[in-house]
Description:
The protein has four helices and seven strands. With 168 residues, the protein is an alpha+beta fold. A seven-stranded mixed sheet has the order 2-3-4-5-6-1-7, with helices on both faces.
Amino acid sequence: MIKEIEVTRTYLKMTAADELKPAKIESDRLQIHQVVECPASFYRYLYTEVGRKYHWCDRLNWTDIQIKNHLKQPNISIWVLYSMSAPAGFFELKQHEDKSVEIAYFGTLDEFLGRGLGKHLLTVAIERAWDLTENYIWLHTCTLDHPAAMPNYLNRGFRPFKQETYYI
């Protein structure tokens, strides 16, 4: 018997750049770079490893061609956090027709949890998103995500604007 799980998805947004409450880590051991020509295998690795515990599954079955087609869209950008040259997390930004920017995917690899890197990475994701828009930035999270996700979003200045419930 398969048991359904009730999930609550919360949408959050930030409507002005000065709403950001940054939490950066100043360290020469950390770097965040945009990956301009991201190989499908590297994207799949980031997506799979960051989302493993949180039921990220919508892109698991994407072929290399689907990933490449997604990443070559001019409104998509991928940014990777490196800790001492090892990939530690990533975020994906998506520019929408209404001039908003979505932080579509965001997170750190399991081995890097609990070090404050998520706060740092989210701060940079928000800054990069504001580089792309003057309208607003948004994201969504759900009750399957890491327990620190929602507090991080709220502490950086996001405000909830919509909720929905679904079952998996």
